Amino acid sequence: MSTSIRWAGLYLAMAWAMCVLPPELAGQEQEGAGPPVTAVMLTVTIRGAEMGEGLMRIAIFDDPDRFTETPSASGVVPVNGGEVIWQVEVLPGRYAIAVIHDRDRNGELNRNFIGMPREPYGFSNDARGRTGPPSFEDASFHVGDGPLEIELTVR
Prior knowledge:
By secondary structure, the chain is mainly beta. It has 2 helices and 8 strands. Strands 2, 3, 5, 6 and 7 form a 5-stranded antiparallel beta sheet that branches. Strands 4-1-8 form a 3-stranded mixed beta sheet, with no helix packed on it. The chain is globular.
């Protein structure tokens, strides 16, 4: 898959979903399973927003096969300085996060003539790919049964 197509897919996935985890998933009992699974608070601190303007577009993924394509939750947070904090309730499990700093608020990931991003972006674990987004494995982290705080940097 070409680099520009992979970046375009990531941006479209992040632009597509602008809501948090569907309420029907949070705090519901799993059929045939023991006690109910309760959603926990995930706090994401995003550093590196050198230009204190624009929007952080954040997407969280829980399916390795659909990483950078279909987020399970997403959000948009205004940038008012060098650090942005986003909170979302998630069920325990394995997740990866992708972030784009949409500096000019145009709703598009600005790219150069060969399709590489010109606006800062980042992934959980500060993972980086060589010719596009990193793998789910490299960017993923585990959410247990208690609140979790993670940090990532956009570059």
